[in-house]
Amino acid sequence: QVQLVESGGGLVQAGGSQRLSCAASGRTFSWYAMGWFRQAQGKERAFVAAISKEAGNTDYADSVKGRFTVSRDNAKNTAYLQMNSLKPEDTAVYYCAASPKGTYIPPAAIYEYDYWGQGTQVTVSS
Predict the structure, then answer these.
(1) Tell me, what's the pLDDT at 78?
(2) How far is residue 37 from each of residues 9, 75, 126, measured CA to CA in Å?
(3) Of 48, 68, 89, 110, which residue has the fewest beta carbons closer than 10 angstroms?
């Protein structure tokens, strides 16, 4: 089992920045690719970004490319999502997730992730 706890959400103005953290416990952190997903009110959960097990490769949704950066620190068992140039349409609950796949290419599909955090709300005001 892997337990994931997100933090860092809150209210931010459009154009601002925010960093989300995802602290993992349980099994060895480096065994898992880490992904970030978000779910806006009334919409389905969607892929945001992911990073491979050894942090060599990343992937992003087109809507966040150039604005968001995913990273991880395996020594601290923590993944991060740095969000810059935030827009009101980025408002959502953000979830981190862990996948046993993704040694080289981080997965982007929800069904490839076995463990999920409880989510953290990010609200971007215009």
Answers:
(1) 97
(2) 13, 23, 22
(3) 89
What does the pLDDT average to over 85-105?
95
Which two three-digit tokens encode residue 62?
Answer: 């087109």
Q: For the beta carbon of residue 21, count every other beta carbon within 10 angstroms.
A: 17
Pairing of strands 120-125, 58-60: unpaired
pLDDT of 110 above 90: yes
d(CA 26, CA 98): 12
Residue 101 CA to residue 125 CA, distance in Å, equals 36
- b (16+ CB within 10 A) / e for 70-109: bebebeebbbbbebeebeeebbbbbbbbbbbbbeeebbbe
